[in-house]
Amino acid sequence: IHALVLDGCIASFTDIALASMPVEQHDMARPFLVFPYGAKEDIKTVAKPKILFIHSNEDKEVPYSHYEMVLVNAKKEALSWIYIGGHLEAPLLHPKELVNQINILLK
After folding, report:
1. pLDDT (tens digit, 9 = 90+) per residue, 4-14?
2. 71 pLDDT exceeds 90?
3. How many CA atoms, within 13 angstroms, populate the side-chain half-sphere of residue 55?
4. % helix / strand / coil in the chain, to the nearest 5?
5. How many Å apart are CA 72 and CA 56, to the nearest integer?
6. Cα-Cα-Cα-Cα dihedral of 29, 9, 3, 51, to 10°?
7. CA 71/CA 22 separation, integer angstroms
8. Residue 90, Cα to own-chain centre: how many angstroms?
9. 3-class secondary-structure state, position 27
10. For residue 72, with 0-12 CB atoms within 10 Å meaning exposed, 13-18 middle and 19 or more buried, which class applies?
11. pLDDT tens across 15-58, in order?
12. Which value, in Å, is the radius of gyration of the alpha carbons in the chain?
């Protein structure tokens, strides 16, 4: 693998579940939200491939904070493209810029 593109990724299943419920329920729900994988932890082990993060701060499905949680844990400098649009809409709304961003990644 020479490059990795993460588009609208969630930090973890636990984090996305908690983001969809009232804060008052977090302590009650947390013990039941145990999942073995999470991008915010797994990204720490990605050392070799170049990384491009794609996210929208208008994303209603996956909060922008998830992008930030994963990005901060990346071991290497990563490229980021923040676009205008909804969740996973970059290819639909901005196809030329998507190709451009991937070409930059692959240089």
Report:
1. 999 999 999 99
2. yes
3. 22
4. 45, 15, 35
5. 17
6. -90
7. 25
8. 13
9. helix
10. exposed
11. 999 999 999 999 999 999 988 889 999 999 998 899 999 999 99
12. 15
Token pair listed for 104 = 């930059």
Kindly report the pTM of this predicted structure: 0.88
CA distance 17 to 37: 14
The strand pairing partners of 79, in sequence order, are 52
The secondary structure of 36-72 as a DSSP string is: S--HHHHGGG--SSEEEEEEETT-SSS-HHHHHHHHH
Q: How many residues are present in the chain?
A: 107
Q: Is residue 75's pLDDT more than 90?
A: no
Tokens of 102: 């991937």
- Map tokens 């720490």 to a residue: 44
Q: Which two tokens stand for residue 30?
A: 């947390």
